[in-house]
Structure formats: C-alpha cells, structure tokens
Design brief:
The protein is of the alpha/beta class. It has two domains: 5-42; 49-183, Glutaredoxin. It has helices at residues 12-42, 53-62, 79-94, 111-121, 132-135, 169-183, and strands spanning 49-51, 68-74, 100-106, 127-130, 149-153, 159-164. The chain has a six-stranded mixed β-sheet with strand order 1-4-3-2-5-6. The longest helix is centred in the first third of the chain and has 31 residues, at 12-42. It starts with 11 loop residues before the first helix and ends with a helix.
C-alpha cells in the first residue's frame, strides 16, 4: 500500500520506506532513459516525421479526401500490434492508394527498435512518430487509451470504426471489403 503524504502523520517508518521505494523507481527510470534516448538519436530516422493532433487532422482532411482511411496507433514492443501490422501490410498490397490511405502512428521508445521492426515486416505505408498530444487530443478527434488502436474512416470522412486490440483477419477483411464496396 502506498501512503499519501497526509497519511504519513505519526507513521514515519512506513512513509520513509514508501519514499525510498519511489526514489529508487525514479532513479532506475532516470538511468534507463538516457540509453534509450541515445539509441534513438543514433538510429537512422529514415522517412519518419513527427505527427501531432493538428497534422493528423490535416492529413485526414486533405490526403484522405474521397478515400477510406485507416489510422493505426502501435509500438513494436506491443504483441497485439505485431499481429495487426502484417494485416495492414497485406491490405496495402491489395488495395490501391487512390482508394485507401493507411497511416501508422508509432509510440516506440527507440527509433532503432522501430527501424528493426519495420525492416522485418517490410512496411508499405507511411509511419509517423506520435507526439504526446496525439494521445491526449484536445479536439477529441481521437483518444488513445490502449494500443493497438485503429480508427477507420469511410470515403466521406466519417469515422465508422474505433477498434482497440486486434480483429481476426477474416473479420477485418470483410469490414474493409464492405467499406470499399459502399464507396463505389
């Protein structure tokens, strides 16, 4: 049990243990982060661009106009994300870009890890590095509570699906086929 500061009155020993534990966690975090940041700085960022809420909105309104749009939020360390991305890679291979826009927004801690993952899955759609405000959109365009998280928009720009987790591939394919047929 972690005690609040107000809960410490008259109980110095348990509160000091809690404080020592929290300081230890902060120290461990501080020691781990510089290595991750250094690895990210040493990685070849390739074509990665940062994306925030405003830029994502602009892409959806401009590049997605008249197309089905799929935006997935993922990280290479996320097991379900590693299952979902190959589905999207196969979909991108089947559906022409003039009919569908697929975007990935990544939240990896390290660009080096992301690069390794993208090379392994042979990513064939744009991937952006998500800035923190994409998670906490002020416009409520999106709200990310878990990954993978996928938003699907029809050709008119209306959000038609909001999916947390991974759909079975057959269900996902039927849903996309339906959207493509209704867009014709």
């Amino acid at each position: 049990m972690i005690e609040t500061v107000s809960g410490c009155a008259g109980r110095k020993a348990p509160c000091m243990k809690t404080l020592a534990f929290l300081l230890g966690l902060m120290l461990a975090f501080a020691l781990c982060c510089p290595a991750g940041l250094q690895a990210a700085q040493e990685a070849d960022p390739g074509d990665f661009k940062l994306i925030d809420d405003d830029r994502l909105t602009g892409i959806l309104q401009n590049e997605g106009k008249g197309k089905i749009v799929i935006v997935t939020f993922f990280a290479s360390w996320c097991g379900p994300c590693r299952m979902e991305i190959p589905q999207l890679v196969r979909l991108r291979s089947k559906v022409p870009e003039e009919d569908m826009l697929i975007l990935g927004v990544n939240f990896d801690y390290s660009l080096a890890e992301l690069n390794r993952f993208l090379r392994r899955v042979k990513m064939n759609f744009p991937v952006y590095i998500g800035e923190s405000n994409v998670f906490t959109s002020k416009s409520k365009l999106i709200e990310i509570r878990a990954i993978p998280r996928m938003f699907i928009y029809d050709a008119s720009g209306k959000q038609v699906q909001d999916i947390e987790g991974v759909l079975p591939e057959a269900v996902f394919d039927r849903m996309v086929d339906y959207l493509l047929e209704s867009a014709i």
